[in-house]
């Protein structure tokens, strides 16, 4: 277990919990511990889905500026690959993932939220990529994941201005997927993740992989990725179980084993 990032598992759902008061600034230690927690959550058989959470007050307010301020080009050229890789480890979790966003998700915090499959936010949360105000740009995936999520024009507006996006606008443009009162954010994320406990884990993995890989290729190639994954699932016990259960008992009653 990390010192500043914990992996907590209960009832088939893992929580990657950031705990670096006061604002969960993503220093090098936090970055490395996020990657470690993500890899463990992905590998564990007792984890069906993952919540990324920063606590009741703040998700993550960005990188540790004091740490970065002393770095020169050579320092960041050496570190930037590990920085990107630490958050990409969350994006590469093969199970359903959800960010539970309270308070601020800014800079690296917003980039971390962008790595999950969906984002549930407090109705008073604020998100953004304010790096331009420091004379830099997002460096942990913000220019790429944000533009893929909300479109290039909206992403450029957010990145060029460095402004904070309030919760209502974030929902309207698709930056977040649901708003709930701040006190309900974590429970809502747990409920979303919990629905996948006992679900067809191999099919979920194939669905996520097909969507994610398909976004980076042309339609013809994406359809081939889908076709191959679809066909491969017919070699699993879960496919036989699911279809047999549908015929005998109707939809939604199968018990899957992940084989």
Task: Provide structural commentary.
The chain is α/β, with parallel strands linked by helices. The protein folds into 2 domains: 5-194, 2-enoyl-CoA Hydratase, Chain A, domain 1 (Alpha-Beta Complex); 201-249, Lyase 2-enoyl-coa Hydratase, Chain  A, domain 2, CATH 1.10.12. The chain has helices spanning 28-43, 65-69, 73-91, 108-114, 142-150, 152-161, 167-173, 185-194, 201-214, 219-232, 237-249, and strands at residues 5-10, 13-18, 49-53, 97-101, 104-106, 118-122, 126-128, 165-166, 178-180. The strands form 2 sheets. It has a 6-stranded mixed beta sheet, with helices on both faces. Helix 1 (28-43) runs parallel beside helix 3, helix 4 packs across helix 5 (142-150) and helix 5 (142-150) crosses helix 6. The radius of gyration is 19 Å and the shape is globular.
Question: What portion of the residues fall into strands of 2 or more residues?
Answer: 5-15%
Name of the CATH architecture of the largest domain: Alpha-Beta Complex
CATH topology of the largest domain: 2-enoyl-CoA Hydratase, Chain A, domain 1
In quaternary terms, these chains amount to single chain
Family: Belongs to the enoyl-CoA hydratase/isomerase family.
Protein name: enoyl-CoA hydratase
Catalytic activity: a 4-saturated-(3S)-3-hydroxyacyl-CoA = a (3E)-enoyl-CoA + H2O; a (3S)-3-hydroxyacyl-CoA = a (2E)-enoyl-CoA + H2O
EC number: 4.2.1.17
Q: In summary, what is this structure?
A:
With 259 residues, the chain is of the alpha/beta class.
Keywords:
259 residues, alpha/beta, 2-enoyl-CoA Hydratase, Chain A, domain 1, Lyase 2-enoyl-coa Hydratase, Chain  A, domain 2, 2 domains, six-stranded mixed beta sheet, three-stranded mixed beta sheet, 11 helices, 9 strands, 48% helix, globular
């Amino acid at each position: 277990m990390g010192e500043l990032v914990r992996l907590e598992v209960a009832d088939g759902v893992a929580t990657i919990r950031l705990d670096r008061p006061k604002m969960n600034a993503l220093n090098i230690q936090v970055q490395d511990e996020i990657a470690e927690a993500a890899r463990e959550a992905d590998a564990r058989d007792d984890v069906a889905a993952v919540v990324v959470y920063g606590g009741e007050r703040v998700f993550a307010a960005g990188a540790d500026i004091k740490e970065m301020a002393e770095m020169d080009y050579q320092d960041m050229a050496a570190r930037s690959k590990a920085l990107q890789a630490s958050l990409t480890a969350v994006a590469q979790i093969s199970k359903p993932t959800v960010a539970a966003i309270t308070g601020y998700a800014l800079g690296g915090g917003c980039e971390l939220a962008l790595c999950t499959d969906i984002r549930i936010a407090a109705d008073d949360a604020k998100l953004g990529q304010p790096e331009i105000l420091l004379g830099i740009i997002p460096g942990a995936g913000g220019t790429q994941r944000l533009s893929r999520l909300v479109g290039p024009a909206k992403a450029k507006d957010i990145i060029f201005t460095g402004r904070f996006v309030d919760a209502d606008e974030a929902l309207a443009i698709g930056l977040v997927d649901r708003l709930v009162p701040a006190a309900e954010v974590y429970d809502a994320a747990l409920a979303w993740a919990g629905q996948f406990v006992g679900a067809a884990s191999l099919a979920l993995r194939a669905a996520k992989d097909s969507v994610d890989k398909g976004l980076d290729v042309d339609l013809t190639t994406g359809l081939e990725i889908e076709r191959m994954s679809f066909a491969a699932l017919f070699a699993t016990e879960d496919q036989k179980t699911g279809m047999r259960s549908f015929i005998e008992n109707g939809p939604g009653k199968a018990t899957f084993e992940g084989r």
